[in-house]
Amino acid sequence: MCLAIPGKIISIDRSEPELAMARVDFSGITKNICIQWVDVTEGDYILAHAGMAISVVNTREAEETLEDLKKLQRL
């Protein structure tokens, strides 16, 4: 089973036309994620798998999910 946590795009690097990358914040952990096949802008939330963005997540839903995860950590 895979657990996907929403990540917020901090910055985008399109200097390589065939490999757009983004710096993504996953609740304090930042990773470089390929965004070549999704339509995103800075500030968007995504789900990623194996270093690639697989979908864009609605901002409200992403923030609610992250808040729920924080609540679970406090239990």
Quick structural summary:
This protein has one helix spanning 59-74; strands spanning 7-13, 21-26, 29-34, 45-49, 52-57. The chain has 75 residues and is α+β, with helices and mostly antiparallel strands.
Architecture overview:
This protein is 21% helix and 40% strand. With 75 residues, the protein is α+β, with helices and mostly antiparallel strands. It has one domain (7-74): SH3 type barrels. It has a five-stranded antiparallel beta sheet with strand order 3-2-1-4-5. The longest helix is centred in the C-terminal third of the chain and has 16 residues, at 59-74. The two termini are 22 Å apart. Pfam families: HupF_HypC (PF01455).
Largest sheet: 5 strands, antiparallel
CATH architecture term: Roll
Spatially, the strands of the biggest sheet line up as 3-2-1-4-5
CATH class: Mainly Beta
Please estimate the helix content.
10-25%
- Taking pLDDT < 50 over at least 5 consecutive residues as the criterion, the unreliable ranges are none
SS summary, helix count: 1
The tally of structural domains comes to 1
- In terms of DSSP E residues, the strand content is 35-45%
Chain-averaged pLDDT: 94
Radius of gyration: 13 Å
What is the distance, rounded to the nearest whole angstrom, between the alpha carbons of the first and last residues? 22 Å
Structural class by secondary-structure content = alpha+beta
Report the strand count: 5
InterPro entries: Hydgase_assmbl_chp_CS (IPR019812), Hydrogenase_HupF/HypC (IPR001109)
Pfam families: HupF_HypC
Family: Belongs to the HupF/HypC family.
Protein name: Hydrogenase assembly protein HupF
